[in-house]
Design a protein that fits this description.
Elements: E1 2-7, E2 10-13, E3 18-26, E4 30-39, E5 46-52, E6 57-59, E7 67-72, E8 77-82, E9 91-100, E10 106-110, E11 114-119
Parallel strand pairs: 2-11
Antiparallel strand pairs: 1-3, 3-8, 4-5, 4-9, 5-6, 7-8, 9-10, 9-11
């Protein structure tokens, strides 16, 4: 079993900052991708930022220049530093990881979601 545990969501004012953290634990052999998605009610989950095992990153246009993704491989953790927050960033944020377990197979895992609310 693998678990992703998120923390760091909450309330911020427009222009402010929040930092999301996510740690993976359990039957982990390797992590190929780790990152963040977000979702509005009734809409599809959308990519915010993801980082791969070779250090490359993919950041959504809406997040470029404001959000920074980083990863701690030793801790199986990923972080999202969100600066210059806007009211439209008010969404539920989900941690995502693509993990190879001891079975040799890769699976996709999601965190439970953390609410980010930005007031104007």
């Amino acid at each position: 079993q693998v678990q992703l545990v998120e923390s760091g969501g909450g309330l911020a004012q427009a222009g402010g900052s929040l930092r999301l953290s996510c740690a993976a634990s359990g039957n982990i052999f390797s992590i190929s991708r780790m990152g963040w998605y977000r979702q509005a009610p009734g809409k599809q989950r959308e990519l915010v930022a993801v980082t791969t095992s070779d250090g490359s990153t993919n950041v959504a246009d809406s997040a470029k220049g404001r959000f920074t993704i980083s990863r701690d491989k030793d801790k199986n953790a990923v972080y999202l530093q969100m600066n210059s927050l806007k009211p439209e960033d008010t969404l539920v944020y989900y941690c995502y990881a693509q993990i190879m377990t001891s079975s040799g197979y890769q699976y996709q895992y999601w965190g439970q979601g953390t609410q980010v609310t930005v007031s104007s």
